[in-house]
């Protein structure tokens, strides 16, 4: 269903093949705030902060590039790849929407064409892009960061997985876009710098579309044969159809069973669901995460405000990690062991 350039495709695992620890305790209540609402409170804050720190960012837009040039392979052989996004004061780049794919009831995969068919995005792991849109009745442009799900080495395009949120101006605009229209991008926005074997074991705790930077990390780790990092994923959602990139993670579990484990938690699971139910609980995290006393571990958190508040505490600003709170602090992790996307 999604681009799989980084991973070899494997058959999905059966439920009982993936369980190496007890599942999380069932919990009542709704997970909408925890898993379903990564909206203005998080993404809007990131966009506003970036814009306020870069007053000329919205006004500096590069002219739309020409469409793909159909150069022959012979002409391009040995040619250095051009990175479209160079950071600094480059300004926004206008990209053409090439294709739209329906993922589920509120999520689409959008493929944007890079200016040349052999261009690469210029993103690194981990980093994101800032999108900008200004409607005809808007006083100010809307700015939202997104982490592409395409590989950083993919040529000619980049892919975004976009969930439409109620009253979300950017996600609504992107869901209304048709192939042939354009959107403005700027970046890369640097996040956590990754290098092979930087940590012995990392844990990824995500909700909703907070999975995209986690997937970016996983791609970098498992496509590199020299990287031996172990990865544990805990992913919370409202329903099974909301589990984004599940096929890709299942392929990782099949190919690297000793290094990658995924645990899914659903607020409204289907009949026969064999994994976690309700919220991501401290009991589940105690069971599946590496111990805080283990050396050289890192825990990454990404999701809507409710998830941050429960798991790690909120970020005051996009560039400020803030204090460690929530379950991870109660479990004995240090601030240095946790990174909030």
From TrEMBL:
Single Gene Ontology BP annotation: ergosterol biosynthetic process
Protein's name in the database: NADH-cytochrome b5 reductase
E.C. number: 1.6.2.2
Binding site for FAD: 144-146, 161, 163, 170-171, 212
Locations listed in the record: Mitochondrion outer membrane
Region (Disordered): 61-83
Keyword Transmembrane helix in record: yes
Database matches in SUPFAM superfamilies: Ferredoxin reductase-like, C-terminal NADP-linked domain, Riboflavin synthase domain-like
Coiled coil, from the record: none
UniProt keywords, alphabetically: FAD, Flavoprotein, Membrane, Mitochondrion, Mitochondrion outer membrane, NAD, Oxidoreductase, Transmembrane, Transmembrane helix
Main localization of the protein described in the UniProt heading: mitochondrion
Ranges of Basic and acidic residues composition bias in the record: 66-76
GO CC terms: mitochondrial outer membrane
Annotated catalysed reactions: 2 Fe(III)-[cytochrome b5] + NADH = 2 Fe(II)-[cytochrome b5] + NAD(+) + H(+)
Cofactor(s) this protein cannot do without: FAD
Residue ranges occupied by any FAD-binding FR-type domain in the UniProt entry: 90-195
Membrane topology: Single-pass membrane protein
């Amino acid at each position: 269903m999604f681009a799989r350039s980084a991973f070899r495709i494997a058959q999905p695992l059966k439920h009982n093949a993936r369980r190496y620890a007890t599942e999380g305790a069932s919990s009542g209540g709704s997970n909408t705030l925890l898993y379903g609402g990564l909206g203005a409170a998080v993404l809007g804050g990131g966009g506003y902060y970036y814009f306020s720190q870069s007053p000329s960012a919205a006004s500096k837009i590069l002219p739309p590039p020409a469409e793909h040039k159909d150069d022959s392979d012979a002409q391009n052989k040995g040619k250095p790849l051009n990175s479209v996004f160079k950071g600094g004061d480059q300004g926004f780049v206008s990209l053409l929407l090439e294709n739209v794919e329906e993922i589920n009831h509120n999520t689409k995969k959008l493929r944007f064409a890079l200016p040349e068919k052999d261009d690469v995005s210029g993103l690194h792991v981990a980093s994101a892009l800032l999108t900008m849109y200004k409607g005809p009745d808007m006083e100010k442009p809307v700015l939202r960061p997104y982490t592409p799900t395409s590989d950083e080495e993919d040529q000619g395009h980049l892919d975004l997985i976009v969930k439409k949120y109620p009253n979300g101006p950017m996600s609504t605009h992107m869901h209304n876009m048709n192939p042939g229209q354009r959107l403005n991008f700027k970046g890369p926005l640097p996040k956590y710098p990754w290098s092979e074997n930087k940590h012995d074991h990392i844990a990824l705790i995500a909700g909703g579309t907070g999975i995209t930077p986690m997937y970016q990390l996983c791609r970098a780790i498992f496509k590199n044969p020299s990287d031996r990092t172990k990865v544990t994923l805990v992913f919370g959602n409202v329903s099974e159809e909301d589990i984004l990139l599940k096929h890709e993670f299942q392929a990782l579990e099949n190919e690297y069973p000793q290094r990658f484990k995924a645990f899914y938690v659903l607020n409204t699971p289907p009949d026969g669901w064999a994994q976690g139910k309700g919220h991501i609980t401290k009991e589940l995290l105690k069971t599946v995460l590496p111990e805080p006393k283990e050396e050289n571990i890192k825990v990454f958190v990404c999701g809507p405000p409710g998830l941050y508040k429960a798991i790690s505490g909120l970020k005051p600003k996009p560039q400020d990690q803030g204090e460690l709170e929530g379950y991870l602090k109660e479990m004995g992790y240090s601030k240095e062991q946790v990174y909030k996307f």
